[in-house]
Amino acid sequence: MKDGHEVHVLVRPRDRMPPGLEGAKVHNYRGHGQEILNAVEKARPEVVYHLASLFLAEHKFEQISNLIESNLSFSTQLVEAMVENKCLNLVTAGTAWQNFNGKKGTAANLYAATKEAFEVILRYYADAHGLKAVVLKLNDTYGPADPRRKLLAILREAALKKESLGLSPGEQKIDLLHVNDVINAFKVAGARVAKNVAGVEEFYLRSDRTLNIKELVEVFNKASGKTINARWGDRQYRPREVMMPWQEGEVLPGWKPEISLETGIHEYANEESNA
Amino acid sequence: MKDGHEVHVLVRPRDRMPPGLEGAKVHNYRGHGQEILNAVEKARPEVVYHLASLFLAEHKFEQISNLIESNLSFSTQLVEAMVENKCLNLVTAGTAWQNFNGKKGTAANLYAATKEAFEVILRYYADAHGLKAVVLKLNDTYGPADPRRKLLAILREAALKKESLGLSPGEQKIDLLHVNDVINAFKVAGARVAKNVAGVEEFYLRSDRTLNIKELVEVFNKASGKTINARWGDRQYRPREVMMPWQEGEVLPGWKPEISLETGIHEYANEESNA
Questions:
Q1: Chain A contacts of B106, Cβ < 8 Å?
Q2: What is the percentage of chain B residues whose pLDDT exceeds 70?
Q3: A114 CB within 8 Å of a chain B CB
Q4: Residue in chain A lying closest to B98 (CA)
Q5: Nearest chain B CA: its distance from A103 CA (Å)
Q6: For residue B273, what pLDDT is reported?
Q7: Mutate to test the interface with A, among B60, B121, B129, B131 (most CBs of A within 10 A)
Q8: A57-71, pLDDT tens digit by residue?
Q9: pLDDT for B113-142, tens place per residue?
């Protein structure tokens, strides 16, 4: 919106509106496909940024239908609505976890498998209906106003409460990107897909700095001026824990991350809690 | 059942029970995931033959959620129920249409894309939970008691009523297998997956005799002793009509078709109509 674009958002009425989107045109989605069709038909977007997703690190049987409804059924209906309205430019988010343990296309978890499966659907729409898509594969992300209870939030809370914290052995490496760097990547991808003639392109967003959880806690301590009292090995690794983020695959051309982990964590650790 | 196996079937109450399955143990599916879990837990099958599918040659927007529910959500819940019960042997059906116009993995239609997407899910379960699966990719099939309104059924009806029949230009080639040959392939695949140690294997079922629709009508006339009065070119080809069936990819080892088109069509054309 700051760049002068007219922005339409398709959201569930119960969703928290992301900060900065006040003034966007809101289309409500209550679970009816027709609402997706109507929103695309009214907005006629030059670029669709499809960011809706159900993330589950581990799934239970009874969550499968919701996972597939969110990540495949909604997503496919959105793309169908796009091609029916001749809106052919899509930017969407995948995950580096679509490639587990060095095996490209073999997902770390069912969530990542639904993301990989959606790319099959995208390739059909590209071939059959001229859809153009850029899929950005993300690793971990963080930043201000993040409502998710991710590791950095837990570290911040433990530091604030001065409580000790049970953690895994901490040897798994992660690759963290600041949300502002991620937003820039989506802008670059949007400009690319609007100009580009290719079908489905996939690019990775990486910080080019992986560090393990033990190293991350050291960075957190130094950048925040606080001290985490960690009980290493108190928790087990998750089944199919990703020990090393996927480092292969082309990074989005024309983009690089600009916010260092030290700067980002300093800001994050001292943010007023938004809980 | 003739081979001495205990057979359990999971069916919707409204489904027609396939002939020959009287005496099988019936588990009803009314759309609740728990019913899938219960059926697998009670049956504890050595091999699961997953044949449920929603086929749509062309889809409408409002059919997408059903397509994905049948071919991805139900299917994923079935596989989850299998691994939760340590039943790890699956035989299922894909389609040669998962490869359109010489492009492997680019589907001819959205139905075929859901089949290709399901293989992504299968690879996750194979890697994460030791699932073993054989996916048999079929072309066209025919045979007695076929309730589908496919080309051979339309030819038979036109011959019976002595009516002329509007058809496409008829240059698209098809590869037809008799249902008994297909059944034999599923038996071979079931024996293979029960012994086999590999993850997801894919094989093709082919007749090794492709013929175009014009040639097929000649075979029909000769084998049936009837004469189709065809108006060639009266109908248009379907969008993304498959003009040449996919001929690549390994055929299921230990299997070959045994019923010639002439024999099968002679029998089919003279079958008492089961409409």
A1: 123-124, 127
A2: 99
A3: yes
A4: A124
A5: 10
A6: 56
A7: B121
A8: 999 999 999 999 999
A9: 999 999 999 999 999 999 999 999 999 999
Mind telling me how many Å the CA of B265 is from chain A's nearest CA? 34
Say how many C-beta atoms besides its own lie within 10 A of residue B239's C-beta: 11
Q: What is the CATH number of the domain that holds A265?
A: 3.40.50.720
pLDDT category at B275 given cuts 50, 70, 90 is: very low
The answer to whether the beta carbons of residues B189 and B203 sit under 8 Å apart is: yes
Of A33, A44, A5, A36, the C-alpha closest to A21 is A5
Q: Is residue A1 part of a domain?
A: no
Residue A273 has pLDDT above 90, yes or no: no
User: What residues of A are in contact with residue B135 (Cβ under 8 Å)?
Assistant: none
> Residue B20: what pLDDT?
82
In a domain, B2, yes or no: no
Q: How far apart are CA B46 and CA B195, in angstroms?
A: 11
Asked whether B36 and B73 are in contact (CB, 8 A), the reply is: no
| Cβ-based contacts of A118 with chain B (< 8 Å) | 117
Q: Say if B69 is an interface residue toward chain A (CB within 8 Å).
A: yes
DSSP conformation class of A156: H
Least confident of A20-24, A209-213, B200-204: A20-24
The answer to whether ipTM exceeds 0.90 is: yes
The alpha carbon of residue B87 is apart from the nearest alpha carbon of chain A, in Å, by: 15
Tokens standing for residue B89: 């042997």
> A151, A145 in Cβ contact below 8 A?
no
- Measured between its terminal Cα atoms, the distance across chain A in Å is 27
User: Do the Cβ atoms of A120 and B117 come within 8 Å?
Assistant: yes
Chain-chain contact of B72 with A76 (C-beta, under 8 angstroms): no
B238 assigned to some structural domain: yes
Cβ-defined contact of B68 to A81 (cutoff 8 Å): no
Residue-number span of the structural domain to which B94 is assigned:
8-269
Task: Give which of A264, A180, A163 is closest to A216, Cα–Cα.
Answer: A264
In a domain, B174, yes or no: yes
For the stretch A110-129, pLDDT in tens is: 999 999 999 999 999 999 99
Interface contact flag, A73 B64, Cβ < 8 Å: yes
Overall domain count for chain A: 1
Residue A275 has pLDDT above 60, yes or no: no
Strands B211-212 and B173-174: antiparallel
